[in-house]
Amino acid sequence: MLDVANMDWRRLLDALPCYVSLQDPELRVIWGNTVHRRDFGEAKARTCSKIYKLRKSQCADCIVKKTLEDGEERSKELQLTTRNGERLNVIAHSAPFYDATNQLLGVVVTKVNITSVKEMQKQLIMVGQTVAGMAHSIKNIMMGLDGGIYIVNSGIKDDDQKEIKDGWEIVLLNFEKLSRLVKDILYCSRDREPNYKLINPNSVVTDVYNLFKDLAVRYSIEIKLDLDPGLDEAVIDPDGLHTVLANLVTNAMDACKMDLWKDTHLIEIRTKIGSDGSTIFEVADNGMGIDKELKHHVFEDFFTSKGDKGTGLGLMVTQKILKEHGGEITFRSRPSHGTTFVAIFPKRSIEGAKSGNEGR
Amino acid sequence: MPKKILVVDDEPHLVKYMTAFLEDSGYETCSASNGEEAMEVLKKENPDLVTLDLQMPDETGTRFYRNMTKSKLHKDTPVIVISGLPGRHLAVSQPFAVFEKPVDRDALLEAIKKAIG
Asked: Which own/partner pairs from A322-327 qualify as long-range (CB within 8 Å, at least 24 positions apart)?
């Protein structure tokens, strides 16, 4: 039977899922509940700044100190580090702890872990930025379409075939941009199994090359192919591969356009067979390169260094496609010298693929 | 003599669009694809007005604008900012007018007429 009158209240506190601790007037933690002991170790009268590895700025307006001074309850968001080095975001709450004679003995601190909420908040902010980025991309594409249509119309009026052709090319270019953007958005918004087919990897590369080579010339960029003739087949989702290559070439072109130090630029698309039978695609450019500080952000969702012109979707989609194939993507880069992205698709037999109907 | 307009945009097809449209409307045009080139063309061609895309990489657009307002010869040349990003014009102190992409052609033409006739 529950005997409330003689109950050890510490056991009740031990059952709580949030951190509960008691600190004395010297800010030493003299007791912590089970989860507190689990994540921060035995208190051993260490001070809170030591136990939670707080930064000096966080201690500047300490809620425990203030509660000790005036007996008022307070709360504050804090970032703590557990004994395993894990970072936690918590809401800390401090309440005065009195004895029977109303003497202030210390402060009871309760901390609720809100790390996952913070993570969600960060993601929502990023989604918002992405949507804004996409709106700008669409606006730019609309202006391009507007321009192409205007030039076609004016060519028709003047009966000028060259102008009609130029204008139409602008319309097609922007149409292609729009469909790529929509594909990227769709790709991000759902999980899908790759539609495996037996393909010739070099011919997909050639398709992408044909799509970009004329556009590249306008920016004084030459695209070269270095294809391994021995690579005649692989089991890869052709649409996925096309998207990966188109995204990597678009990025390479942007890196060249943003590099003002060279007059002409070069992009090379290479294919190779890995020693384990994997299919390797490389897209190398001699553009502006990726700064040290940006290197570890490259594969972050929605990350872009292109301001209004990027959506941060390109590499996110690229990485997603590679993951779905069980492959990987890496890069090496030297600032102001260029960047090479390497996409590796593992060897796969068509029998193992869901949609395959041809034997190998 | 027709008035001359400098079109600054890093997207070649937008340059083509703007110059075609402005020429059809009776203006002479010249163009540049980045801020540095724009400064050169500005000195050489002495345009009566500049349309400027502020979305160019490396902020060369805003730098160009700052240099232009510092130049004695060109500081009074009206600038019309064209941007895909609302509020971006705040990077520029006193544009004559601001248009968001996609640009309303008639309104743009009206603004140009108001500025230089």
From this structure: A322/A244, A324/A192, A324/A193, A324/A194, A324/A237, A324/A240, A325/A194, A325/A236, A325/A237, A325/A240, A327/A278
Neighbouring C-alpha atoms within 13 Å toward the C-beta of B77: 28
pLDDT above 90 covers a percentage of chain B that reads 45
Considering only CB atoms, A143 lies closest to which of B16, B20, B101, namely B101
Question: Which residues on chain A are in Cβ contact (under 8 Å) with B100?
Answer: 139
Which alpha helices (H) appear in B46-116, and where do they start and end?
Answer: 60-70, 105-116
Domain residue ranges in chain A: 4-113, 114-190, 194-360
CATH fold of the domain at A4-113: Beta-Lactamase (3.30.450)
CB nearest to A258's CB, from B11, B58, B88: B58
If you average pLDDT over residues A334-338, what whole number do you get? Answer: 89
> Which residues of chain B make contact with A166, given a CB cutoff of 8 A?
16
Token pair, residue A261, equals: 């130090």
| CB contact B36 to A (< 8 Å) | yes
pLDDT tens by residue, B29-80 = 999 988 889 999 999 999 999 999 876 655 677 788 888 888 888 888 999 9
Contact A318, A343 (CB under 8 A): yes
pLDDT, mean of residues A80-99: 93
What's the CATH architecture for A194-360?
Answer: 2-Layer Sandwich (3.30)
Per-residue pLDDT of A146-201, as tens digits, reads: 999 999 999 999 999 999 999 998 899 889 888 888 887 777 777 778 889 999 99
CATH for B79: 3.40.50.2300
Comparing alpha-carbon positions, the chain A residue that sits nearest to B13 is A170
Strands A338-345 and B4-8: unpaired
Spacing of C-alpha A207 from chain mean position? 28
Which residues on B lie below 8 Å from A151 (Cβ)?
A: 16-17, 20
**Total structural domains within chain B:** 1
Read off the pTM.
0.56
Range 49-88 of B in CB contact (< 8 A) with A = 55, 57-58, 60, 84-85, 88
Model ipTM value: 0.79
| Minimum Cα–Cα distance from B54: chain A residue | A308
Q: Do A308 and B58 touch (CB under 8 A)?
A: no
Contacts of A219 in chain B (CB under 8 A): 12
